[in-house]
Write a structure and sequence with these properties.
Length: about 425
């Protein structure tokens, strides 16, 4: 299940049945074998032999979450092994020193180990998130932060520091969640004692920013569709935004990675890149290929229609994860810049690529379409996720409906004044 071999070094994950824990389970460990010597590294997880046998093809949410955490532990060890081999410096002793630094030395080295492991798995966006969080916390407390330093008071001061740096609460929340993940790993490894754990109710609670998602009406979207673009670049960006909206609110990463093989009969079928790493939880998104979408493909897409070609010619295939992310990020920025101009010209508020996704959901909701159908279209794993996603829209509707209770139409006012 988890296995890597190179230069006579074998890294794998095992259920260590040599000693049963008090709860009747066995620890899951990462085992490294080199020159007939063996080293074991804790993952912090314990399983029964029955659950261990199910890990390969489990659909259990509980076991999938355990599997993800085991994967992270395996990736951390694998990333260090790869680096030491690359530098011709591998021994079990140096591996022990590096792994100790990654989990037991400082918060900074733990952050860096996580960044390295994520980058090794091609998770560039998440790796960057941790990298930016590391840069932020280092700017606040230096490059040698001990785990014992991270207290409730430390976190409160760090939050104030970010506010003074004019960071938005969205950014503060993201960085704090990254720091919490690092502390959680240290807690699992026994480095941070539960009594000293600083996060949670009654301790430090990560601020939850109020996110207001703007959703357009059909009439507003029609204004965008009819807008006379000043240049081909603006027109392309407008069309890609509309394609995202019509394609069940697919984000730009998904749009860029669509291939002609994703077109099946009159549908575009794909798995969201955001969830593709969790194979057992993937949900197929099926969007009707409308006449408008076909026109956009004909205008800006590849002309080959070969199954292995991307629908839009931004990616060529074979790019590194870093190069791929850069290309998609640049396209997203370009679309956002052009849509901001278009929105101002047609009298709308701030519009971004995310507005297309939220508009898809809310237009259908306003039309009376069931939450279950919208959930399927968005590719959400559960209807509850969609209900949470649309909660802001529901609040806006309640405010409008409440105003109706005291709103008297003009004709009714004239009739009332006649009495």
């Amino acid at each position: 299940m988890f296995r890597y071999s190179t230069n006579s070094i074998t890294v794998c994950v095992i259920l260590d049945t040599r000693r049963q824990t008090k709860d009747g389970l066995y620890p899951v460990k990462v085992r490294v074998i080199y020159e007939r010597k063996i080293a074991y590294y804790a993952t912090g997880k314990r399983l029964s032999p029955e659950d261990w046998e199910k890990m390969d093809d489990t659909r259990s949410r509980r076991l999938l979450e355990v599997k993800d955490e085991i994967q992270e532990a395996f990736d951390r060890v694998q990333a260090v092994v790869k680096e030491l081999v690359k530098n011709d410096a591998f021994t079990l002793e140096t591996l022990n020193i590096r792994l100790k630094a990654a989990t037991g030395d400082t918060v900074n080295t733990a952050f860096q180990a996580t960044v390295d492991a994520l980058a090794a798995r091609g998770k560039v966006n998440t790796a960057d998130w941790y990298k930016y969080a590391l840069r932020s916390v280092t700017g606040f407390a230096g490059g040698n932060i001990r785990f014992s330093q991270v207290t409730v008071e430390f976190l409160q001061r760090y939050e104030q520091h970010m506010l003074q740096e004019k960071q938005k609460y969205t950014t503060i929340s993201m960085y704090m969640r990254a720091l919490q993940a690092i502390i959680n790993k240290a807690k699992t490894a026994g480095i941070v004692k539960p009594s000293h754990y600083p996060f949670g109710k009654g301790r430090y609670e990560i601020p939850q920013p109020e996110v207001r998602h703007m959703a357009l009406t059909v009439e507003e979207i029609d204004k965008i569709m009819r807008y006379a673009c000043e240049s081909d670049t603006t027109e392309m960006c407008r069309d890609l935004w509309l394609f995202s909206y019509l394609c069940n609110g697919a984000n730009i990463t998904d749009v860029c990675k669509l291939k002609f093989s994703n077109i099946r009969q009159n549908d575009i079928c794909f798995y969201r890149q955001k969830t593709i790493a969790r194979a057992k939880r993937m949900k197929l998104v099926q969007a009707v290929l409308t006449a408008e979408m076909k026109t956009i493909i004909g205008r800006w897409g590849n002309t080959s229609w070969s199954p292995d070609d991307y629908i839009f010619p931004f990616l060529q295939g074979g790019e590194t994860p870093v190069a791929e992310r850069r290309i998609i990020k640049n396209i997203t920025h370009l679309i956002n810049d052009k849509m901001k101009v278009i929105a101002a010209k047609v009298g709308l508020g701030h519009i971004s690529t995310y507005t297309a996704r939220h508009s898809y959901a809310t237009v259908l909701k306003r039309a009376g379409v069931s939450i279950a159908y919208i959930s399927e279209g968005l590719g959400h794993a559960h209807v509850k996720m969609t209900e949470t996603y649309l909660a802001n829209f529901e609040q806006e509707e309640r405010i409008k409906n409440a105003a109706l209770l005291t709103h008297v139409p003009k004709k009714a006012k004239r009739k009332i004044s006649e009495y």
